[in-house]
Design a protein that fits this description.
237 residues, alpha/beta, Rossmann fold, 4-stranded antiparallel beta sheet, 7 helices, 33% helix, 27% strand, binds adenosine-5'-triphosphate, binds magnesium ion, ATP-binding, nucleotide-binding, transport, P-loop_NTPase
């Protein structure tokens, strides 16, 4: 495992409630740089809520959220948005691409939003699309892309600003199994190159192939945890 001792995520007793409902019941979790952590558990157990906390998309009722060494639970809205754009990449089940922008511009926009000049952002976006095998689809609008292509664009966008942490909520959830497999390969490859991953998934194959640690979630809390060797041999690059 290529994990270092640096902590990319540190949650301390994070609680989150929605009215009477306790979605996160005092969750503590640390993720080291280079890990690929998969969170699995029943529907409604709080997995997406957990991811939203780490992404700074939602705030805890109590507890501490540290990402890439910064306490984000105390940040103001503007600082938090800036932090999220620069340091966190997010991949979604339904891609969340902008329909009226071509693939390349969807990716480049993530750079533009943190102040990267247009030409540089496009060059980086093209490089990413190329790495993900869809350079020839840069001018295509999301509507004409296949599900797998859309998710590749989603991953490219998430990687645009070289995030300390890549979050994914059911990244294969809307894909057929062959296409899902390609996205799994892609995430695995990224982690092997050192990208820290936090995945939420119902997809056993994704967890089995990608994760270096499995976390079982239930009723707003961690009920089990397994560090594991990945099933496949290390491929030297
Ligand atoms: N914005 C919200 N307002 C009220 N309740 C919410 C909100 N978001 C989530 N919840 C509730 O919090 C609980 C945890 O939801 P969450 O979306 O985190 O579950 P999940 O584990 O991601 O489920 P799934 O596997 O179905 O995606 C659920 O009972 C849900 O109804
Ligand atoms: Mg969810």
């Amino acid at each position: 495992m290529n994990a270092s001792e640096k902590k990319v995520v540190r949650l301390g007793s994070v609680r989150k409630t929605f009215g009477d409902l306790t979605a996160l019941d005092g969750v503590s979790l640390e993720i080291r740089e280079g890990e690929a952590v998969a969170v699995m558990g029943p529907s409604g157990s709080g997995k997406s809520t957990l991811l939203n906390m780490v992404a700074g998309l939602d705030r805890p009722a109590s507890g501490k959220v540290e990402v890439d060494g910064e306490d984000i639970s105390g940040m103001g809205e503007a600082a938090l948005a800036r932090f999220r754009r620069r340091r966190i990449g997010m991949v979604f089940q339904f891609f969340n691409l902008l329909d009226d922008l071509p693939a390349l511009e969807n990716v480049a926009l993530a750079g533009r939003l943190v102040g990267v000049p247009a030409r540089k952002a496009r060059a980086r976006a093209l490089e990413l699309l190329d790495e993900l095998g869809i350079a020839d689809r840069g001018d295509a609008y999301p509507a004409v892309l296949s599900g797998g292509e859309r998710q590749r664009v989603g991953v490219a966008r998430a990687l645009m600003n070289r995030p300390a942490l890549l979050l994914a909520d059911e990244p294969t959830g809307a894909l057929d199994s062959a296409t899902g497999e390609q996205v799994i390969d892609l995430l695995l490859d990224l982690n092997r190159k050192g990208q820290t991953l936090l995945l939420v998934t119902h997809d056993e194959r994704l967890a089995a192939r990608c994760a270096t640690r499995l976390i079982e979630f239930r009723d707003g809390g961690i009920v089990g945890e397994t560090a594991r060797e990945r099933s496949e041999p290390w491929i030297a690059r």
